[in-house]
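FAQ: What does the model actually see?

It sees only this:
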Amino acid sequence: MSNERIRWSHKSLDELRSFWNKQIEPDLRHAGHDLDEWPAYQDLLEMGYGASLDSSSQSSRPSKPSSTPAP
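And it is asked to produce this:
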């Protein structure tokens, strides 16, 4: 997997299927994952296919909840 940012939300369903079949599945197979079962999200993260926000202006970390309750 290259270091390029994958803009998941900009892909059509057909593009996502194609990307899975041509990129992710072969990478998982090469890394020794059993593809008779769906990979865990952690497996995908370890392969470099983690979800990141499309907007570079937003943080990829969730914000901490406020200690002050909302009115």
